[in-house]
Amino acid sequence: MEIVRKPVIKPEEFRLISEFVAETFGLSLDADKEGYLTARISPRLRDLGLTTFAEYYNHLKFAPSAEERLRFISLITNNETYFFREQSQLQVFAETVIPALRDRKLRNGDRKIRIVSAGCSSGEEVYTLAMLILESGNFIWNWDLSITGIDIDPQAIEKAKAGVYNGRVFQSTPGQYLERYFRTSADGLQVRENIRSMTSFVQGNLLNLDTIFSEQEVDIIFCRNALIYFSAETMRRAIEGFAGVLTRDGLLFLGHSESLSRITNLFRPLHFPGAIIYEVRDDY
Ligand SMILES: C[S@@+](CC[C@H](N)C(=O)[O-])C[C@H]1O[C@@H](n2cnc3c(N)ncnc32)[C@H](O)[C@@H]1O
User: Fold this and answer.
1) Whose CA is nearest to atom 15 of ligand 1?
2) Is the CB of 152 inside a 6 Å radius of any atom of ligand 1?
3) 75 C-alpha to center of ligand 1: Å?
4) Helical residues (DSSP H) of 137-226, grouped into ranges
5) How far is the CA of 26 from the centre of ligand 1 (A)?
6) Which end of the chain is less crowded, N or C, counting CB atoms within 10 A of the terminal residue's CB?
7) Ligand 1 within 6 A of CB of 153
8) How confident is the model at residue 2 (pLDDT cuts 50, 70, 90)?
């Protein structure tokens, strides 16, 4: 019987790969992630015929194309997501934020609305926002509205673009949304065209939103459950980048376990029942 030895990562190898991940993707791999990293990338070492993590590090760092780096990031990211995640925030978005945004835009004679989901994974958050907006009936005629999902993981972006889903991702989806906004396809339920036409997806790093959007172009950023993997310093960089592309009264939604206290004072918290939203400070 052939004994398959699992490669064991040495502290030095873990340090090199962590530094590479931080420099290239802005993600911090804490010291307790050794087991996680080993489990996620050992199969890839085997496929490549490599026996040590040092060899894999060299392969990653010095490979001429980005292909291995993108494959690697798909392996180590946590893509968990589902439709209608964190209901209380979405309720504030639908009932308070959307009508206020519409009124303000109309007052300013501006009919352009840009919403971003930074760390959108396979697209469920983007489509949820589009459904809530359509359902609200607020932006029907003559609005230039788009919701852009950005994720570093190319496989997640491909899935988001296809817009076909099954199973547990629908666990929180109200029945009327399933009926109105999905159609049955051979592989599952596909998001209907009226929702897809409001959305787009880009593979990219949320640390570089300024390469995708102009200064003060974005009205609202959702960045939920992505920054938990960032170091405090990288999180600060991300938030500063968000402040740069948001409009003067732009809003930021974070995941419920994420907070800006002790990170930055570029935003002020707005408190709602069951939800905190951050607004760009106009006095910074
Ligand atoms: C746990 S999912 C959260 C998805 C969705 N926002 C939600 O709350 O359901 C986190 C996503 O952030 C993405 N991500 C992590 N770091 C990123 C970065 N630097 N730039 C863009 N996306 C990133 C991961 O690939 C992953 O798909």
Assistant:
1) 226
2) yes
3) 13
4) 154-162, 175-181, 193-196
5) 12
6) N
7) yes
8) low
Per-residue buried b or exposed e for 96-108, using 16+ beta carbons within 10 Å of the residue's own CB: ebbeebbeebeee
Is pLDDT of 192 > 70?
Answer: yes
User: Which tokens belong to 159?
Assistant: 């899935």
Nearest CA to ligand 1 atom 11: 119
Which CATH number describes the domain made up of 87-280? 3.40.50.150
pTM here? 0.92
pLDDT at 4 (0 to 100): 58
Which residue ranges make up each domain of the chain?
11-76, 87-280
Q: Residue 3: pLDDT above 70?
A: no
Task: Ligand 1, residue 205: give the atom nearest the CA.
Answer: 20
Asked if residue 226 has its Cβ within 6 Å of ligand 1, the reply is: yes
CA atoms lying within 13 Å on the CB side of residue 258: 23
Q: Is the pLDDT of residue 118 over 80?
A: yes
pLDDT at residue number 262: 83
pLDDT of residue 282: 80
Q: Which single residue is written with the structure tokens 């502290």?
A: 11
Beta bridge partners, 146, equal 114
Average pLDDT, integer, range 61-89: 91
Tokens representing 203 are 């593979």
125 CB under 6 A from ligand 1?
yes
CATH code: domain 11-76 is: 1.10.155.10
Give the span between the Cα atoms of 185 and 62, in whole angstroms. 42
CA-CA distance, 167 to 189, in Å (whole number)? 9
**CB of 151 shorter than 6 A to ligand 1:** yes
